[in-house]
Amino acid sequence: MSNSQTTSAGIGAGPRSALSAWAHHHRQAALISLDKLIREPIASFLTVLVIGVALAVPSLGLSLAATVQGQISQIDAPPQLSVLLRQDTSLADAHKLRTEMLRKPGIADVKVIDRDSALADFVSATGLESLVQRLNRNPLPHTLWVYPSANTRLAGVEQLQVDLGSLAGVSQVILDSRWLERLNAFTDLLRTIAMVLGAVMAVGVVLTLGNTLRLGIEARRDEIVVIKLIGGGNAFARRPFLYTGLLTGALGGVFGGLLSGAALLILDAPVKRLFDLYDQAPSVPSLILSELLMLISIGAILGLISAWYSVQLHLTRIQPR
Amino acid sequence: MDLVFDRVNKRYERREALSDLSFEMHSGEMAFLTGHSGAGKSTLLRLLLLLDRASSGEVSVGGRPLSKVKESRIAKYRQDFGVVFQDHKLLADRSVYHNVALPLEIAGFTKRDIDRRVRAALDKVGLLDRERASPDALSGGEQQRVGIARAVVARPKILIADEPTGNLDPQLSAEIMGLFSAFNSVGVTVIVASHDLALISRMSQRILTLDRGRLITLGAGSRGMNE
Lengths: 321, 227
Known about the structure:
heterodimer; A: 321 residues; alpha+beta; 2 domains; 7% strand; B: 227 residues; Rossmann fold; 6-stranded mixed sheet; 8 helices; 27% strand
């Protein structure tokens, strides 16, 4: 053993300032966590994969719901109203009604379909000429097709339906928007499912990552005991776990973004084909940077919550407290 | 740093671990704590490190009553102590160097200071050439010396050792005790709990003998008595 003075064990300056030491401890904890993730690539990757999938599924559902609803809002602006006139209303009265309707706000155009043309179209479309010939008279009324203005919302069109129904000579007003309402309800359902799924998966992420960190805490129990015995305290012991949660969650967000982006690329063509049927030309949006950053942030926050929950539950139970 | 135990009692459910214990140690003093298994040595050290609180009475360190130390300040309080354990408590996944550096990292020393202090502490215990080794590659005596280096590296005001020679042969035990005396000679207050009467009776420092939680002897080793 050396014979030099024992006091030299205490050479050098004192510790950093409290703030500087705190910042240094955080930097060290982040580096230790990163190093641990790199040293255990398979375990880390599997955890990141679980978080990525958990974030990608609701993200994808919400993106699709937003795309479809965006298109619906464009489709439903001018739904058509079919105004069936009473049998005793003449064609001249039908044209007068057209003029009257065009003066109303919220109506872009009105087209008169006379009953003879309508019957001819019916025969042409159905081939039921022999049946029609046996009728004594044309059973169809004159009809007005009303096109609401493009900026009229569905609620406004429904009010128009009521107003037009009260006009003299009008028998019935049919608003052909049920299919839009159904599609709207379906996308609402899709969005709700995505959000519920997101909440359930967020809880899953917290529990899964929390359990992974619990195993990490157990594996480092001896180290934690020593740290506490020599003055490290809970804050010093928990920091690496908090950074592990944060980093794993953020990497899960990156992976979730990549998965979601790839799925959106694959879904672009089928969604285009669907909306082609409604003379719309939408494009499924690709994942943009802000959405990727949001997924990374959500992943990081979930990771931090998992770590905090796990650390509070398990680390503080390790003696000494 | 003065230590004062003033009529301290500690009960664990139905068992009285310490009973009406009173004694004082002055700053820079060294004492051995001895007694049979279950005499209360470890309880006394636990109270000092605030791993437990006294059931009644007061323990004061440096004039500060420990009953007044808040839970949130305990970690900081423990930084005044260096602790040597019987089972060393070295971290197997860290090198000797990084085991010794741990208290300095906790205290927030700079990398440069850590390097200087760790090397100096390892030099003191004669293990500078083993700094890169894993603790598992060391003998029992070497591991204990690493434990001592870790305990003194942050220059604690009080050094506590709980059965530090429990697993060592007599020659190594004497070397370890010599190290404690050396640290004490530069002003560090040292308390060594040991039931190895043959070893501590050869030392000159005070001996506190506990029996079933009570202090029964407050004397000095044979060298001290002869002097």
